[in-house]
């Protein structure tokens, strides 16, 4: 069997001294001046096998473990006797240190073997917000399967549930709805009125009128979203009292402000530092006040009769008539108050 190759064993001369070092099955020959010390030998070993002096353990016959670096090199036994070297290379020690570090633990966890690369910045996820949005949401969706195009109704309801404004107010007010459903216009339409939304058992189910009365299309998205805001307020207040309307307006405003696609804008010089206002707010106010006079009943959004079959909330003439009646009533109320205080 072949033996490990050993360096030629030169004899010592008067000016030099040769030492044989055995390490990891190999023999290394070092020839130094007779004036050299153990510290000089350690340096030569580092140059040859990349083991720093601090990690070298040298053991010589009859001398044992060599600790005194000032020991003359001539004190070491000459060939063929060998000095045993025990120690790990600097690279091996660095690998061990890396493995013991937090960075090394992360590297092992992800199956890495090479050097750790700088982390790539990623978008910070607000886990608290994501958890709240998941908790305060809709448990499911129900559409009218017997109607043509019910896939669009599913997409419509999912769009409402994913609406940034709806998600924001549901998390803020801790609203949870068991089922968000499509309402059948035929079951909630009379000659006098049409119901646009319904809240059953304080949030067990919310039904929304998505389709037009003639089943030939879908109602305006923002109008249906306002109806959803109304029904969400019924999660807290069943009656249409002052507390209900205050909450409804807060929810509606929160949805509009959080809507990054169609959100509100701040008007300078309006109040203290400006306030958030959305397009058509004055018309919305008249519309809500008209509804407050009795058009909303029993936890449902019921709009007065009209001939429109288009998108949500009756025809333009219906809304104008309602707004005109609301304005007349406000003027009449103001006149009565003025007469009482005169």
From TrEMBL:
Recorded coiled-coil stretches: none
Record-linked InterPro entries: Ubiquitin-like_domsf, WLM_dom
Signal peptide: none
UniProt-recorded Gene Ontology molecular function terms: proteasome binding
Region (Disordered): 299-342
Stretches with biased composition (Basic and acidic residues): 316-342
Pfam families, alphabetized: WLM
Domain WLM: 129-332
SUPFAM superfamilies from the UniProt entry: Ubiquitin-like
Protein's name according to its UniProt entry: WLM domain-containing protein
């Amino acid at each position: 069997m072949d033996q490990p190759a050993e360096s030629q064993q030169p004899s010592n001369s008067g000016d030099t001294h040769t030492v044989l070092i055995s390490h990891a099955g190999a023999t290394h020959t070092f020839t130094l001046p007779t004036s050299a010390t153990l510290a000089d030998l350690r340096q030569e070993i580092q140059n040859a096998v990349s083991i720093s002096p601090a990690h070298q353990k040298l053991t010589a016959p009859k001398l044992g473990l060599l600790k005194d670096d000032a020991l003359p090199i001539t004190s070491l036994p000459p060939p063929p006797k060998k000095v045993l070297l025990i120690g790990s290379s600097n690279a091996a020690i660095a690998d061990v240190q890396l493995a013991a570090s937090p960075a090394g633990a992360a590297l092992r966890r992800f199956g890495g073997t090479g050097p750790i690369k700088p982390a790539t910045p990623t978008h910070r996820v607000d886990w608290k917000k994501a958890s709240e949005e998941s908790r305060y949401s809709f448990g499911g969706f129900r559409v009218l399967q017997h109607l043509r195009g019910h896939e669009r109704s599913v997409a419509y309801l999912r769009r409402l549930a994913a609406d940034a404004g709806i998600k924001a107010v549901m998390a803020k007010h801790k609203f949870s709805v068991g089922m968000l459903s499509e309402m059948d216009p035929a079951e909630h339409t009379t000659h006098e009125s049409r119901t646009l939304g319904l809240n059953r058992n304080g949030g067990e189910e919310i039904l929304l009128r998505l389709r037009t009365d003639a089943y030939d299309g879908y109602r305006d998205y923002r109008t249906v979203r306002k109806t959803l805001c109304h029904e969400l307020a019924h999660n807290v207040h069943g009656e249409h009292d002052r507390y209900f309307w205050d909450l409804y307006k807060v929810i509606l405003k929160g949805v509009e402000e959080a809507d990054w696609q169609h959100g509100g804008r701040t008007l300078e010089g309006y109040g203290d530092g400006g306030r958030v206002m959305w397009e058509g707010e004055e018309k919305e106010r008249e519309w809500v006040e008209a509804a407050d006079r009795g058009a909303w009943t029993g936890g449902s959004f019921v709009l007065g009769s009209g001939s429109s079959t288009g998108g949500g909330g009756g025809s333009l003439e219906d809304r104008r008539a309602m707004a005109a009646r609301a304005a007349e009533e406000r003027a009449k109320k103001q006149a009565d108050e003025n007469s009482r205080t005169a």
